[in-house]
């Protein structure tokens, strides 16, 4: 605000003619900005006529059920379900639906609006497998007798043939069609013999039918197919992956299955210290290569391994396998940071690690950053105030992280009761 | 309130824990007794017993007499009464009175016990020691570190606001926050020696004594 403005206001003529109107111009003794002369409402007012029009629109867009509709609905639903549907529809004002309701037109919208009877293999959860009510499936099924087996075979063969010939057998078959028909019958019989319903019988029809449900089978179900060229291309590429002998040996030593895909399970390793060392002997210097590797699954497992060999590749391989073999669990608070501040001294190196709030990030030196990345720690601060020997920094950090004391253990040692209030608030969804 | 002696006690308890001792003794003073009771309340130590130059018999530690009230109250009352009675005994001995065995036991325990102990607190205050039972769990000492915060030459007083910050892990009044897992800090206040978090609860300030991990 200019300095002369209050003065101008003071010395202004006070006659009514000079003042155009008692507008906001004159309120100059304050620093608050003046309001426009007429206040407008934030929302345009709705006229009564428009409201009536809206109601009409709503009624035409979402009409009440006609008697014919109700008759149709009553065929599909029980009276109580129908009452529930009507009660639900009565609670929603059609005017609100027209004003606030929005039809999705984004690319991620569901392919159906309200048809929940159809189960989509990709989008929906798999249907829960319920046995027949009352007795358990195993209890109700027993081995079939000769007659029951015959009956079941006939039924299943017919089922299979009905699938292959939905319109029935052709009336005047050509020899080729005749041959195909015989083949089909033969296949159907073979399949019927494999069906568990031929071997087992249950008086409960639902239990007997559930035997044929492929979800009861011990054989792994086929997943829904995705007909994408990109997916197929990557699949063939992965299929042709070269078998790594070293990795196989490592998996064998770890006692993990040979087909474990370490990459897919989030395991990573990184050589973070590597240099030449030489052994001074009577015969001269023997140079060898030293590698220090860290390995982790980015989810609370971390190992540090050293390798030394004349050949750099050998040293690398040895350090990697040692790192995987040395993997230890690292306790993490809320799967993101450490439990309180830790300090660890190793040689001349002192490492101070500090827990930080969510979203802080890993603000540490590059070695500790890599360690935190492979261990899956997301929020961390660290200081290495004294010596910064790389090998010892890595080892000290690893030892500090693995040797953390958990609050539960401390409470147990002190004979205290510890209650995690995070499990009480927020519905226990944290941690 | 000698912080010099308290510093010695802190170091001694640390050393005793490192040496995996089960029982150790410290000089008796009101400050030490109150602090040890605070440590016991926080679960750092298992027992606090007034005794002589020789350690009290283990039976005393295993089976303390039954008193009513909370364990802390019981322990505080017990010790206070022991001290009072010991002083009374001292006075009586100076005057030339002789006490029988039952009276001696009463002096030792503040009341006539159902069973008798031979252990009694020495009449000479210089010979009295406070016997502290140390705790270990999973082959690790429960009390790992115990350091003075206030120093004999530089005492630090904090109010409850400072303590609230400190217990939340922030630095205040030149005292670093309690950021380590299970870290405790003891403060001497008008209402006695208590843990920093309890001070915050009761809105009390005072002189910071030591931090314990």
UniProtKB/TrEMBL annotation, chain A:
GO MF term (any one): structural constituent of ribosome
Protein name per its UniProtKB record: S5 DRBM domain-containing protein
Any Pfam family: Ribosomal_S5
High-level lineage: Eukaryota, Fungi, Dikarya, Ascomycota, Pezizomycotina
Keyword Ribosomal protein part of the UniProt annotation: yes
Gene Ontology CC entries for this record: ribonucleoprotein complex; ribosome
Family per similarity comment: Belongs to the universal ribosomal protein uS5 family.
Residues covered by region (Disordered): 24-43
InterPro entries reported in the protein's UniProt record: Ribosomal_Su5_D2-typ_SF (IPR020568), Ribosomal_uS5 (IPR000851), Ribosomal_uS5_C (IPR005324), Ribosomal_uS5_N (IPR013810), Ribsml_uS5_D2-typ_fold_subgr (IPR014721)
Keywords of this entry: Ribonucleoprotein, Ribosomal protein
GO biological process, one term: translation
Native species: Mytilinidion resinicola
Domain S5 DRBM: 267-330
UniProtKB/TrEMBL annotation, chain B:
Keywords: Ribonucleoprotein, Ribosomal protein
Organism ancestry: Eukaryota, Fungi, Dikarya, Ascomycota, Pezizomycotina
InterPro entries, A to Z: Ribosomal_uS8 (IPR000630), Ribosomal_uS8_sf (IPR035987)
Protein name: Ribosomal protein S8
Protein family membership: Belongs to the universal ribosomal protein uS8 family.
GO biological process terms on file: translation
Gene3D superfamilies per UniProt: 3.30.1370.30, 3.30.1490.10
GO function term, MF aspect, one: structural constituent of ribosome
Segments of this protein annotated with the region Disordered: 56-75
One GO cellular component term noted in the UniProt record for this chain: ribosome
Domain of life of the native organism: Eukaryota
Organism: Mytilinidion resinicola
Keyword Transferase part of the UniProt annotation: no
């Amino acid at each position: 605000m200019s300095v002369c403005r209050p003065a101008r206001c003071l010395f202004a003529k006070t006659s009514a003619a000079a003042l155009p109107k008692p507008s906001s111009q004159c309120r100059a003794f304050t620093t608050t900005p003046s309001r426009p002369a007429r206040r407008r409402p934030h929302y345009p007012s709705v006229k009564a006529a428009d409201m009536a029009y809206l109601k009409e629109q709503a009624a035409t867009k979402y009409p009440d059920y006609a008697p014919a509709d109700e008759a149709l609905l009553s065929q599909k639903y029980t009276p109580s379900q129908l009452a529930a549907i009507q009660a639900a529809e009565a609670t929603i004002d059609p005017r609100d639906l027209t004003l606030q309701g929005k039809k999705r037109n984004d690319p991620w919208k569901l392919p159906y609006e309200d048809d929940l009877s159809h189960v989509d293999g990709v989008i929906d959860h798999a249907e829960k497998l319920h046995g027949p009510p009352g007795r358990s499936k195993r209890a109700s099924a027993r081995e079939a007798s000769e007659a029951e087996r015959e009956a079941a075979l006939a039924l299943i063969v017919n089922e299979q043939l009905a699938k292959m010939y939905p319109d029935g057998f052709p009336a005047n078959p050509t020899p080729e069609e005749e041959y195909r028909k015989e083949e089909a019958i033969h296949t159907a019989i073979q399949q019927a013999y494999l069906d568990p319903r031929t071997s087992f019988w249950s008086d409960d029809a639902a239990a007997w039918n559930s035997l044929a449900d492929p979800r009861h089978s011990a054989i792994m179900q086929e997943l829904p197919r995705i007909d994408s060229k990109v997916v197929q291309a990557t699949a063939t590429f992965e299929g042709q992956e070269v078998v790594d002998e070293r990795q196989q040996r490592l998996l064998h030593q770890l006692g993990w299955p040979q087909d474990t895909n370490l990459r897919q399970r989030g395991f990573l390793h990184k050589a973070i210290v590597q240099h030449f060392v030489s052994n001074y002997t009577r015969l001269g210097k023997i140079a060898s290569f030293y590698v220090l590797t860290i390995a982790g699954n980015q989810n609370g497992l971390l190992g540090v391994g050293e390798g030394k060999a004349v050949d750099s590749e050998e040293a690398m391989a040895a350090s990697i396998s040692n790192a995987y073999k040395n993997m230890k669990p690292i306790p993490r608070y809320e799967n993101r940071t450490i439990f309180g501040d830790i300090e660890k001294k190793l040689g001349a190196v002192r490492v101070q690690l500090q827990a930080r709030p969510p979203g802080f990030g890993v603000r540490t030196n590059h070695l500790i950053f890599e360690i935190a990345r492979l261990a899956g720690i997301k929020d961390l601060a660290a200081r290495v105030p004294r010596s910064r020997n790389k090998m010892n920094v890595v080892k000290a950090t690893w030892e500090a992280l693995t040797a953390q004391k958990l609050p539960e253990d401390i409470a147990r040692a002190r004979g205290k009761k510890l209650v995690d209030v995070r499990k009480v608030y927020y519905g226990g969804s944290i941690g | 309130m000698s912080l010099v002696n308290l510093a010695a006690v802190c170091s001694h308890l640390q050393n005793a824990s490192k040496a995996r001792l089960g029982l150790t003794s410290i000089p008796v003073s009101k400050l030490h007794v109150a602090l040890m009771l605070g440590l016991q309340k926080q679960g750092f130590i298992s027992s606090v017993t007034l005794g002589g130059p020789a350690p009290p018999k283990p039976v005393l530690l295993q089976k303390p007499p039954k008193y009513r009230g909370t364990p802390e109250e019981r322990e505080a009352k017990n010790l206070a009464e022991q001290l009072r009675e010991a002083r009374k005994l001292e006075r009586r001995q100076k005057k030339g009175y002789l006490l029988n065995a039952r009276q001696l036991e009463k002096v030792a325990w503040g009341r006539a016990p159902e069973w008798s102990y031979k252990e009694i607190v020495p009449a000479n205050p210089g010979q009295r020691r406070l016997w502290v039972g140390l705790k270990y769990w999973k082959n690790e000492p429960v009390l790992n570190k115990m350091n003075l915060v206030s120093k004999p030459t530089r005492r630090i007083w904090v109010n409850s606001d400072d303590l609230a910050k400190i217990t939340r892990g922030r630095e205040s009044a030149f005292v670093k926050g309690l950021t380590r897992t299970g870290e405790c800090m003891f403060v001497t206040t008008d209402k006695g020696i208590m843990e920093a978090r309890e001070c915050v609860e009761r809105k009390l300030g005072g002189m910071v004594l030591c931090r314990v991990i």
